[in-house]
């Protein structure tokens, strides 16, 4: 079925609201297990999002443990809602994290790393289609950020749900994903 971003945002916000805490934990664990099977482990710099718990996003804590266990450099971002740009900081034992006004957990400060250094990006999303197009919250942060990364950066969406057939209103500036990992599948685009 073909659908536009606005409809999909509504649909998936509603679907996510219906998930219980234990369902989120269970599905997040299944996603983390699937991530171990991706061909990404020779890479060094991994960018990850910290979940907005209030929006019932995929809990990335288990993926963080995986990355730490494999001694990877992990980056988290701080968003500027005026410029719609993100600044990336190295996650260390000393990183202080605080929720911003949108309930997004962010680093207060730290060692800044340029987008060009990043090898792998885990991407939050609301919906996506079988071609690897994603629908976020509509602010364009990730499209801007991904366009700024090196061309061969590996882009991995994380979702509790399977893809829609086709998102009809995709723009040229929308950056496609290489993979999307769900509790049951790894979709490769």
Can you characterise this structure?
- With 189 residues, the chain is an alpha/beta fold.
- It has a single domain, classed as Rossmann fold, CATH 3.40.50.
- Helix content is 24%, strand content 24%.
- It contains four helices and 13 strands.
- It has helices at 5-17, 21-35, 61-69, 141-148; strands spanning 2-3, 45-47, 73-80, 85-90, 97-99, 105-107, 120-123, 127-128, 134-135, 154-158, 166-167, 179-181, 186-188.
- The strands form four sheets. It has a seven-stranded mixed sheet with strand order 4-3-2-7-10-12-13, sandwiched between helices. Strands 1-11 form a two-stranded parallel ribbon.
- It is globular.
- The protein starts with a strand and ends with a strand.
- The mean pLDDT is 95.
Would you summarize the structure shown here?
This protein has 189 residues and is α/β, with parallel strands linked by helices.
List keywords for this structure.
189 residues; alpha/beta; Rossmann fold; globular
Show the helix and strand layout.
Elements (H helix, E strand, L loop, with lengths): L1 E2 L1 H13 L3 H15 L9 E3 L13 H9 L3 E8 L4 E6 L6 E3 L5 E3 L12 E4 L3 E2 L5 E2 L5 H8 L5 E5 L7 E2 L11 E3 L4 E3 L1
Parallel strand pairs: 1-11, 2-3, 2-7, 7-10, 10-12
Antiparallel strand pairs: 3-4, 5-6, 8-9, 12-13
């Amino acid at each position: 079925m073909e659908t536009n971003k606005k409809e999909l945002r509504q649909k998936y916000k509603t679907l996510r609201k219906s998930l219980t805490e234990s369902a989120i934990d269970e599905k997040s664990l299944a996603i983390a297990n699937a991530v171990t099977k991706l061909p990404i482990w020779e890479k060094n710099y991994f960018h990850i999002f910290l979940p907005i718990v209030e929006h019932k996003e995929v809990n990335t804590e288990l993926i963080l443990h995986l990355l730490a266990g494999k001694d990877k450099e992990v980056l988290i971002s701080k968003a500027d809602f005026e410029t719609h740009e993100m600044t990336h900081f190295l996650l260390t034992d000393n990183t202080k994290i605080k929720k911003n006004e949108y309930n997004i957990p962010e680093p207060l400060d730290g060692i800044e790393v340029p987008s060009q250094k990043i090898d792998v990006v885990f991407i939050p999303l609301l919906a996506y289609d079988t071609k690897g197009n994603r629908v976020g919250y509509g602010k364009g942060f990730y499209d801007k950020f991904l366009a700024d990364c090196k061309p061969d950066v590996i882009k991995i969406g994380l979702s509790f749900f399977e893809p829609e057939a086709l998102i009809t209103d995709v723009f040229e500036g929308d950056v496609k994903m290489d993979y999307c990992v769900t509790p049951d599948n790894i979709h490769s685009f």
